[in-house]
Design brief:
Helices cover 42% and strands 18% of the residues. By secondary structure, it is of the alpha/beta class. Strands 1, 2, 3, 4, 5, 6, 7, 8, 9 and 10 form a ten-stranded mixed beta sheet that branches. It is globular, with a radius of gyration of 23 Å.
Length: 329
């Protein structure tokens, strides 16, 4: 009887302390958080990691600003591999483009990670991609149809660059060629900046990459953006029509950067991280600094982020097959 009474007493005490324990857990902010990012410092996504990371200090999630740990290479995969190997206690996050989990599984036969290895925390920012042309292309080419007409008349020069083989911009260019029955040679680069530089210098005809990478050159008259990939026009290029407006709705694509934690990270920790990230994204200074690199701030719940990721995964599976690309091709 005493044993039973003691057990019931312990259960009652645990029940009474349950909410307090949860509150205590939420109040135990981490001392330090690390954010892995799979591309070099200075790139657009790096700005998201750093601007948000700075604002996490003093939140219920972490006492100090987050440390950004750049892991460039392999199209961003190294950062996710690093996160997979990290403790599931909230001390490590990764910022990754959705393509790393929605497109890469369709093109790499052996990925060192899978979606189930990670817990979505929050979307951070959205980017639109754009088709821009440089001085190799005549000044009277002002629309996508103009470009296609020029490309068919000049097949030796009909090329486009992208930030890398297997990237979403690569596939947008490939779909443009398929849907318009035009031979467009793909020139992959190691990131956006070298390709944009070659487009400005006339070494390649066009570049498909995040719109923000073009902005300084567009303002200087060195590049012309012919179309952007969003559902709506880019707020940074409001005079440029979308692909859909120019009769190519299949090229509508908005890529986001999202924060991930290791799978099995406690729910209370994920909740604290989500709240801190979304609070940071509401700050005007963060929004303004990301606008400079052509990013549109957009927070989310973990559930909405997971749903968007799954939708993108399902969309790009058949498109990758249509394009006929694999990492080995």
């Amino acid at each position: 009887m005493n044993t039973r009474r003691d057990a019931l007493g312990a259960l009652a005490a645990a029940t009474a302390l349950g909410p307090l324990s949860a509150l205590t857990l939420r109040a135990q902010a981490l001392e330090q958080v690390r954010i892995f990012y799979g591309f070099p410092p200075g790139s657009s996504g790096d700005s998201v990691a750093r601007r948000v990371g700075e604002k996490l200090a003093g939140s219920a999630y972490t006492r100090n600003a987050a440390v950004v740990d750049n892991k460039p290479g392999a199209g961003g995969r190294i950062a996710l591999e690093s996160l997979k190997a990290s403790p599931a206690d909230g001390s490590a996050l990764a910022l990754a483009p959705v393509s790393a989990l929605s497109i890469y599984p369709h093109i790499y036969g052996r990925l060192a990670y899978k979606a189930e290895d990670f817990a979505p925390v929050s979307i951070g920012a959205v980017m639109h991609h754009g088709l821009a042309v440089g001085p190799m292309v005549p000044a009277n080419v002002r629309t996508v149809q103009d470009f296609i007409g020029w490309a068919k008349a000049n097949p030796k020069d009909a090329s486009y660059g992208s930030p890398g083989a297997g990237s979403l911009p690569h596939f947008l260019g490939a779909l443009l060629g398929i849907e318009t029955q035009t031979e467009l040679k793909h020139v992959p680069y190691r990131g956006s900046i070298p390709g944009v530089t070659d487009a400005v210098g006339g070494q390649i005809a066009a570049m498909v990459t995040p719109s923000g990478d073009y902005l300084p050159h567009v303002k200087g008259g060195k590049l012309r953006v012919l179309a952007t990939s969003g559902h709506q026009r880019s707020p940074f290029l409001p005079d440029v029509q979308t692909f859909a407006e120019q009769g190519l709705p299949g090229l509508t694509a908005e890529e986001w950067f999202g924060f991930y934690a290791p799978a099995r990270t406690p729910a209370a920790t994920l909740e604290a991280a989500n709240a801190a990230i979304n609070q940071a994204l509401r700050e005007r200074s963060v929004q303004d600094s990301l606008a400079v690199v052509g990013l549109i701030v957009q927070g989310s719940t973990p559930q909405a982020m997971a749903a968007s990721q799954q939708s993108e995964y399902e969309r790009w599976g058949p498109l990758v097959k249509k394009i006929g690309f694999s990492a080995e091709s």
